[in-house]
Amino acid sequence: MPVSTMSAVPEMSGLTLDIRKSTDIAASPEIVFETMLEEITGGMEGMTNTPMKLRLEPWPGGRYWRDLGNNTGHLWGHVQVIKPPKLLEICGPLFMSVPAINHVQYRITAAGDGSTLEITHRAFGLLDPAHNKDVDKGWQNEMDRIKKHAEKK
Questions:
Q1: How many independent structural domains does the chain possess?
Q2: CATH code of 53's domain
Q3: How far apart are CA 115 and CA 30, in angstroms?
Q4: pTM of the entire structure?
């Protein structure tokens, strides 16, 4: 006879994630937006430091997915808002294989001769406690890559 197991549901305070990052970049909003799109598709790396082969359809409702080839992969979300070169919002499960919803906002504003890039990632659901630490580190790496590549252009 099969054995049934039960697990406790996490406390309500452990069900959310709220990460906000900001950096100044010595490049125009147009360059930062273009670089950001390049990085969140071809440049984004997973935990093994290998490209994740992400694809983005850059229009409202467009899909954002990880392409593993042969019609396999993971749906990460959909474009909720896109207003080049100022704003991109994506909502969906992203990289989480748990019951969760994510909302990521990339906001670019002109700042003197350059730009400010703000990334906000909010999520709620049955989140793994490690997500807060790992995701914070991942967004910092992503922001650093965008800054580095935009400033080289």
A1: 1
A2: 3.30.530.20
A3: 9
A4: 0.86
